[in-house]
Amino acid sequence: MGKRLFGWELAGFLWTGLAGTVLHFFYDWTGRAAWAMAFSAVNESVWEHMKLLYVPVFVFTLVQAFFLGRQYPDLFAVRGITAPLGTAAIPLAYYTYTGALGLHALWTDILIFFLADAGLFWLDYRLLRRGAVGSGWRQVAGLALLWAVLFAFVWCSYQPPALPIFLE
To answer: pTM to 2 decimals?
Structure first.
């Protein structure tokens, strides 16, 4: 069962990297369609790069739950931990390196995205393998958190607050 889980987590990492890259350009490819704002990047802000990680992870979570939900009954609880942590790693790393170095490099932003992606699925694998989170109410809480974060990304795509994280 460990090899199967590893395969799924590796697939999640690869899917997120590929889908996040596609979503980076998708809004422009649609002619800046309003409906595409909900799940693709509309500018080069840190918030939008967080969305590029979170949206593919959310979609993958639903697929993974369909195929592995019975074998890993704590999937939503675990992903409710790892998805927000992986997403939060992006602004943490970005603001740390730009603040410390006083400069910004595109290759570093790309590296941060893929490191956050890898870290998310590595932690996910570790927690799922251990079965350490448990199920029951934690499953419901994890699923509710996943949906709440998705809602925040969609909402803020159309109504971004006046905060630096939303600025290009």
So the answer is: 0.93
